[in-house]
Structures are given as C-alpha cells and as structure tokens.
Design a protein that fits this description.
The protein is about 45% helix and about 15% strand. The protein has seven helices and six strands; from the N terminus they run ααβββαααβββαα. The strands form two sheets. It has a three-stranded antiparallel beta sheet with strand order 1-6-3, with no helix packed on it.
C-alpha cells in the first residue's frame, strides 16, 4: 500500500466519507510515518539475495537491518564445468547410476561410502561450523566460514531496512501499521478537540473519548508487538 492509500483508509474510518477532519492529509501522513518508524524495528519479514561466495563480503550500500542466515546453492568451486561434477554427494551419484543406466551393482559399497561421507562431514562440522557467519556492522562486512568446500554462490537471508511504507508487502505488517496509524490519528484529533473548551456550547464533542481510545489502542498494539517479537536476529 502507498502512503496515500493509508491516508484515504484512515479518513474513511474517521469521517465516513462525510465529515471533515481538523487535520490535513499532510499531517495524517506524518503520523503514519511516525507509526511506521515504531513498527519497523519489529518487522521480521525476510528476503533473499544470491551473490558470489567470498569469505569476506562487502555490505556497503546493501540496505538491510540484519543478516539472519546464509545458505549454500548448487555447485562448488571444485569444478564448474557441469552440475554432475559440481556435486560431491555419493548418494546422488548412486541414484543417477541406478536410475539412469539401470542396475544395482555395488549398492552396498555406495551405502558404506555414504556413511563414511557423513562421518567426515560431522567431523568437519565439529572442528569448524560450515557457513558460520558474523556481521561487522561498523565495517560493513560479512565474514563467512566454509568448512567443507567453497561454494560458487551463496544465498543471504536478511531483514530489509524499509525507507517507505509501500515497501512493506506482508499483509500482517500492513494491518499492524494501519491500526497503529489510526490510533495515532485518533489520539491527535482527540487532543485538538479538547485543547479549547467552551462551557456554554449547545453540544459536546467526542475529543476526550477519542483521545482515550487512541492512547489505549497504541498501548495495546505496542504490547502486542513486544510479546510477539520474533528474536531471529543473530546474537554472538
């Protein structure tokens, strides 16, 4: 959703399309951005990017909030001439040989080799963890360890840093942002309507009620975000 769509949605809820609000669209937009800045630190929506592997990757100009995981892609740096040579799993070769050319010759030997292969992998991961990574925030560097072999490319899973509300694509976070923005607008409108009181007016306004309602909704949403926060950020 674009900022203008958030504004129109809030105006429809508060006016029913008939009344006129005491604040401008520009002010409503600023209140939405205020709510957006509060919500952004809780957003755990991740995205993926595939990049060439390096033990040290420069993150300068890479817009993100946190790196959450690193994955291997198909292929290693041993031989890039074909996918068959790039994979070193013995069970893959046995499956290819059995179903590609037929026959189960020496299957038991392949199974034993696979057991040995897994044992070697476990020993390697005991000595050093494959694809263990650490992010240098100050230096804008990502350091990655490769204990098995060197992949050609890796996939980085990360939490993006949003600059505008239209970059939020998750329905859940769009709903949270709409509700928190509406609560901020309610609280602001309530404050405006109760700023000046006229004792002999023939009617009463809903300023106190709207301000209280807005503040309660803000507190409830903040508590919901706090207790449901997903601690997926890596801690070293």
């Amino acid at each position: 959703m674009k900022l203008s769509e958030y504004i129109e949605d809030i105006k429809l809820v508060l006016t029913g399309g008939v009344l006129r609000l005491e604040i401008s669209d520009d002010t409503i937009g600023k209140l939405i951005l205020k709510a957006f800045s509060e919500v952004q630190r809780y957003i755990d929506e991740t995205r993926f990017i595939q990049v060439p592997y390096a033990s040290c990757i420069d993150l300068k100009d890479f817009k993100h909030s946190s790196i959450t995981n690193v994955y291997r892609t198909k292929g290693t740096g041993i031989d890039t001439s074909s996918d068959m040579n790039a994979l070193n799993d013995p069970m893959y070769f046995q499956m290819w040989a059995s179903y590609g050319f037929g026959g189960m010759y020496n299957l038991n030997e392949f199974i034993l080799n696979y057991g040995a292969f897994n044992t070697i992998e476990q020993i390697r991961n005991t000595q050093t963890t494959d694809l263990k990574f650490i992010e240098d925030k100050q230096g804008d560097k990502l350091y990655i360890n490769s204990s098995i072999d060197t992949p050609i490319e890796i996939v980085i899973e990360y939490v993006p840093k949003f600059d505008d509300v239209d970059e939020v694509k998750s329905d859940y976070w769009i709903d949270i942002l709409k509700r928190l923005s509406l609560a901020h607008v309610k609280a602001t409108l309530g404050y405006i309507r109760t700023r000046m009181k006229v004792n002999n007016q023939p009617y009463t306004d809903d300023g106190e009620e709207m301000r209280r309602e807005g503040l309660e909704e803000i507190a409830q949403l903040e508590e919901t975000l706090r207790v449901n926060s997903q601690l997926i950020y890596p801690v070293d």
